[in-house]
Amino acid sequence: xxxxxxxxxxxxxxxxxxxxxxxxxxxxxxxxxxxxxxxxxxxxxxxxxxxxxxxxxxxxxxxxxxxxxxxxxxxxxxxxxxxxxxxxxxxxxxxxxxxxxxxxxxxxxxxxxxxxxxxxxxxxxxxxxxxxxxxxxxxxxxxxxxxxxxxxxxxxxxxxxxxxxxxxxxxxxxxxxxxxxxxxxxxxxxxxxxxxxxxxxxxxxxxxxxxxxxxxxxxxxxxxxxxxxxxxxxxxxxxxxxxxxxxxxxxxxxxxxxxxxxxxxxxxxxxxxxxxxxxxxxxxxxxxxxxxxxxxxxxxxxxxxxxxxxxxxxxxxxxxxxxxxxxxxxxxxxxxxxxxxxxxxxxxxxxxxxxxxxxxxxxxxxxxxxxxxxxxxxxxxxxxxxxxxxxxxxxxxxxxxxxxxxxxxxxxxxxxxxxxxxxxxxxxxxxxxxxxxxxx
Length: 440
Description:
This is CHK domain-containing protein. The protein is an alpha+beta fold. The chain folds into two domains: 143 residues, Phosphorylase Kinase, domain 1 (2-Layer Sandwich), CATH 3.30.200.20; 281 residues, Aminoglycoside 3'-phosphotransferase, Chain: A, domain 2. The strands form four sheets. Strands 1-2-3-5-4 form a five-stranded antiparallel β-sheet. Strands 6-10-11 form a three-stranded antiparallel β-sheet, covered by helices on one side. A hairpin with a 6-residue loop joins β2 and β3.
């Protein structure tokens, strides 16, 4: 048994008992089982399933705990290029510091809101664990919610019910930041300052992996449009593409950094990577989604809420659904946001305290930041649409060398024409909605 397995099966269960308020630190554990399912393996993390029998010291509480253990993977060089230390430490921070404060506010205000956004946290710590490895590590232990019926949604195209549920779910999470701001809660400043900056560009430094991936995604799109100029079939769309190429063709990451700019009204503590990959749905007997849990807060930031919205909407809505439901999903989010604020603040919907967050200013803000979802989609959608064997190539070369010719090659061809056409559809939609106005 290697040192990591020994830590996970012997030392971690004890740490969990000491950490969790629902468990007795003097209790005992037995019959430990550890597995590492291939389908849970991520680009930057390894997910283990850990289960064991727990018994309190007084023997009055006994149960089988089914848990998920998330740890960083990769060499120090890989973690540096992907800013893994910052991302995973921030994730631990959200689970262990931010969520408890939000939950306490919901409870003490008598809001009636459950705040049940995520799986239950059993342990979260960042630092050095000498008995595990000689690297800086983050270890996060969450409840395994699959036995309660939570499962992944469709791999790519969500249905309207999924989208509306996702919008409501993230709205209640965002509302906590706004409620704390309106209440002038001094804890908010400390919570925000506790998030380590995850900038795309900082001075002369760029977020290496994103710099490469965003540029490759944009290059693929421009190459396709150059080969098919007939697709630029109206003056507005053609001008929007020309403007974006003129300002950001070689550096789309700088546009992304611009879209992270903070303001005193709409900036919130974000999920940051809110998409189908990072949520699980619970469905009723008819298959309709009725519950949702989100996870993977690695890219959380303090920035525009549109980052959380535009990403999952562009990623998971094919053209017909965008045409039919885009505005409905945005309105669903805004309605849930105001309803949550009313519940937390105990004010009527007409109260002037809510004026900064009315629909009209929100839509203006959405329009100024929706390009974030567009640029992320140019990079990520091909990875999600391509066949499994191509995705494996992308994952392998991304982990091995983000600058490699092989990664560039697979990025340009994965998924073929179907991907290219869908990406053009995303750009057309953004152009029609006026989202390109920020790059004029």
